[in-house]
Structures are given as structure tokens and as C-alpha cells.
Amino acid sequence: MAAMAGLERWVSGQLQELLGLSARHVPAFLVALARRSRSLEELLERLRETEALRVEEPRVREFASQLWEKVPREAPREPPGRAAERAALELQRQNRGYRLVESDEEGPGPAQDHAQDEPRPRRRHLRRRRRSESPPEATTAYEEAQKRLKMAEEDQKALIPELRKRSRREYLAKREREKLEELELEIQDEELLFGEDSLSAPELRELRYKRRLRDLAREYKRAGDREQLERSSRYHIPEETREKDVPEAVPEAERRRQSLQDGRRALPIFPFRDELVAAVGQHQVLVIEGETGSGKTTQIPQYLHEERVPSVIMIDEAHERTLHTDVLFGLIKDIARFRPHLKVLVASATLDTERFSAFFDHAPVFRIPGRRFPVDIYYTKAPEADYLEACVVSVLQIHVTQPPGDILVFLTGQEEIEACVELLQERCRRLGSRLPELLVLPIYANLPSELQARIFEPTPPGARKVVVATNIAETSVTIDGIVYVLDPGFCKQKSYSARTGMESLVVTPCSRVTAPVCHLCVTCVSPVCHLYGCTEEVLTVAAMLSVNNAVFYRPKDKVLHADSARVAFSVPGGDHLVLLNVYNQWVASGHSLQWCYEHFVQARSLRRARDVRDQLQGLMERFLSPQAITAGFFYHTARLSRGGYRTVKHQQPVFIHPNSALFSLQPRWVLYHELVCTSKEFMRQVIEIDSSWLLEVAPHYYQAKELEDGSGRKMPKKAGKSREELG
Predict the structure, then answer these.
(1) What is 387-491's CATH number, 3.40.30.10, 3.40.50.920, 3.30.360.10, 3.40.50.300?
(2) Could you tell me the pTM of the whole model?
(3) CA gap 185, 28 in Å, rounded
């Protein structure tokens, strides 16, 4: 590997001298080309076919010659059939060289000297004695050996054609594989190095011809495999002559419907269907409490639809308390007082029923008892100093000691989930084959949908799956096969301060009754954009803001690539215009999924923003300016002062989020979409504004004295830039 890497670096340097450039995969391609060539002339011919180098130039031929000498080659391997054929021919040659030992009979011979004739009688005597002593079976054994040699020779003669045929077949099959691989590599190289846009018309026709040839070869191979399978599995079933009653086949749709109905009847809510429908008819507001998996989310809407109960609003997962949901509850309460025919259902698995009942004028509570499966709950005897480490140890203990069943682990956020996944994978690698296979799968809101879908795939036999999730998996997602659940007892909760206008997201302990839950924020849009003639742009920005900061994806192993892709979307003016730029480029790509992969943008969030935009567009006429956004969020403003940014009204110290496009620019006046307190008080989705706009759009809220620019005052060393300086 080191030698090949050094050779590729040498080729890259030579290409820099010859062409003035060197792409990433070109050196490896040229080295592979040289290894496949059987001679220097063939290498030159292949280089000529690429049309990348002019083979006629002396320095190119010198480069090819040096490359041919440097490329390591394996000794040619002789095919097994050829070796067997050579061994048979050698054995045949040896057999032909065998001769029988003739007997030394006496006979007339030439005259010899007396000294030589004297010992002859003794030798004849010895020969005669040896012949008399040899058994008569020797002649028979000799004849048998001759027969066996002749039979072996005949067998070898008959075997050689068969060996040649087998060797030829093996050679043709190998040749077919090599040619197909070579064609695949040529197509990949042309697509990678040039692409269809940079090819001429003849080259493009040649590329399409190669693709067609490759597809035909694949189809031919698949057809041969199918034919061979049919030959091996072909059998004859005698026709049934007896008469018997054959039940009619149940259609697939009917069978699926019946299976679905059986599943509905097995839910704990099914026995209470009639009582629930009657309670909805009797009361205007009904608080429903039921265990997770009881079927309240999926079945209650179906029951109401089947019973034709109108005008029902169902608020599910009511425990997901945010600023928006609290406002929603207040609006629904007021609307219900003026519309007596409106039915309101408030449902949740972990709900403070008494508080919600009191809020809705002491509405009745309908409880759905029971779970689909029995649940045993165990608690630690004492708090853990490091609950993340305790979760990792508990997962491994369950995996080693407990019966089969998948594991679900709840953690507070993406950072903890990624840390837990790394710890589990590292310890599984350390234990090696001593530990059964453990599939570690994360799931959190910002994870792309194709990676989230992996948690629903069946677990392979002999393995166990552990899902490390935020509270998105508690009530919003149902995962089959989960047997063990680990909950560290911490969750991230949002709290809103009306005085500072800030939402804080902090890790807090939760009680045994309530568990960490997921939350969804919905952004409303003010129709002030008509005033500035930018309806289309504001619709897009409002829709993008509604996806809750889940536009960009930043995988831990590709942080630099993701950050570079995000910077490429930056435009002067702020984060709202960045979101508009992302959406417009996605639309220009034809809503391409591949475009989202390449730019580290979540396709699911963009599709959701498109749906929200379509809904908003249906409510408005067809007519982005920063003035329009300022008119909608005039109370979310901050000014750069000597000590940093402070909110205009309450003088609250705030900071621009590091992911903002304005993080390094720091304009003097900014408007933000929301304030979130994590490690600091961060402003999210920031846009640069002019202070004069605030008096124009909200004279009832601001005074001129509050909005003095202060550009003549002494500013910090890293002074903010004005709108004109930002361009």
C-alpha cells in the first residue's frame, strides 16, 4: 500500500509538470492503466485513447516508459487446466521412453580376442541360472504392467480434450469478467473525469454505447442465472384427480383490513369506545389521560369520524408546554366560550390532569387504563454521578445478560446522543467477537429522515438493536421490538420569561410520573408584507422559520464540509435572507434530494417548509424586504453597545449565535427571530436592520431617544458595521 501511494504521488507530480494540474483520482487511474497493460506499446495506446496526454511528445513517452518500469507486476499465473495438460503430456512422454529388457540368448557373434572369449561361459552360466531361478509369474506381471500403461495412455489421450475444453471454458468466463470490469472502470473514469457536459458528440455517443453494452451484458448474465435456476428446480407435479372443496382465496386487501381490525381491537382503548364517544357528546371540553400505546392518538379521531361527531378540536401531547402552546390553549378556551357547539379534547400520556381540568373551567377527566404490554419499572438506589456513563454500562449489561429484545435509551439532546453512540461503538470494538452483535442507532430531530428510518428496520437474527433517542421517541414514534427502556431522569425544558422575552432550554430533572417529551414550535406570520410588496419572499421566510432550526445537517464526521456548504449560502443582510436563498436554490434544483445531500440540507425540513408555505399562500393574495420582517418582529431587536449586544427595551445582554451569517460581521442594529438560553443568551435567525425603521413601524412601542444610533460615541475595538458598510 505504501509503495502504491508513493507511486501515485510520483504520477501526480509528473502530471503537474506535463499538464499543470492533477485531479484526485487521475494518478490511481493511470497506475491501474499501466498495470493492466501487457507492454509499453499497449500502455501508450491506452494513453492515446484517453486523449488526455499527447503520446507523440517525447516527454510524455518518457513519462509512460518510467511509469511502465515503476509499476509492480505479479508473475503470470498458469491456468489450472494448462498445468494439468502439461503434466499429462510429460507422463505420456515418459511412458514412451520405457523399454523392455531383452533376454541375452546365445548366438553367433563377431570374432573376439582370446582374452575376451575366456570369461563368456561363466556369464552365460550365470544368466542361465538367473532365468531358471525367476518365477514364471514374472512374465505375467510384466504383461499386466504393459496393459496398465497402455490403458493409462489411452485414458490420458481421452482426458486431454476434456481438459482443454474445461480450460477454455474457465478462460472464457474469466475473460468475460475481466472485460466487464474493464468496461465498468472505463465508464466510471469517463463520468468522474469528464462528465457528460464536457464531452463532444462522438464521445457522448461512445459513452452511451458503452453503457448500453454494459446493461446488455448484465441482462444476459441474469438471464443465464435464471435459466440455470429453472433447470435445477424443475419438477413435475401430478395433476390432482380427487374432488375436494377448496376454500376461496382471501384477497390481499381484505386480509390486511382484517389484520388491521384485529390490531385495533387489541388496543386498551377499544373497550372504552362507546363510553368515550358518549362523553364527547355530553361535554364541550374533555381531558383524556392514557398510557403510551393505548391508542388514544390513532383511534380517537377514527371513532369520532365513524360516529360522525362534528366540530372537534383535539390537542394531543398537551404536556408539550411552549410559549406557542400556552397561547394556543388560551385562544381555544376563549373560542370555546363563544362557540358552544365546538368540542375540545385535551389528551396526553403524561399529563397533570387536575391543572388542565381547572384551566378549562373544571372540565371532566376521562382516563384510559391499561397498557398493551406489562411493564416492570426499576429505579437506581442512589443518583449516578455520570448518568451518560451509567447508561452505557447498563446497555452493555442488558446486552450480555438479558434475553433477546431491543433497547431504547432516552437522552436530553443531540450532543449527548452522539457521545453515547461513540462510547458504545468504541467498547463494542474493544470487546470484539466476545460480544454479540450490537447495532447502535441514534435518532433526534435534526437527523435526516433516511437515517432516522434505520431504527424501524428489523433487527438481524442473533443481534440486538439499541436506539439512542431524544424524547422524540417517547410519544411521537412507535418502534417495534423494544423490550428494555433506559431513562436517566433528565430532560430539556423550555421556559419563557415575559420580562426579557427569552426562552431558556436547560437540562432539568423530571419526576417519575412525567418523562422527557419532544416539542414542536410553530411560527405565525403577520400579513404586513403587503405594505412592502414582498409577499412571496415573506411567505418563504415564514415557512422556513417554522421548521425550528432544522434546515442544516452537521454530521460529526463531516463538520468541515457541512460548515463550508453552509457558508456558501451566506448573503448580505442576515439569516432570514440565508433561509430564503436556501429555499430558492432548492426550488431551482427541482426539489432534488441529491442536491440536499451535497449541500448538507435536510430534505424533510424543506418539504415541510414547502407545505407550510402552500398553506400560507392559500390565505394571502399574490404580491423580502427587511422592513416587512421588522414590522412583524419589531419587539425582537438588539443594539451593539460598548459591552456587546443588548436588547433595545430591556437592556438584556445577548449574543449572535455562532451559526449565524452575521456572527463575524456584527452590525450595529439587528432583529432576531427568538432568544434561546443554552450556554449563553443566543439570538437565532438574525437580520441587520436600520434603527429608523423601528419608529416607522412601531411608534407606539419605541421612543426616538431609545433609538439614537450612537455612531458618534466611542465604540469597542471590534466596532459593528452599519447597513451601508455591509452592502
Answers:
(1) 3.40.50.300
(2) 0.44
(3) 12
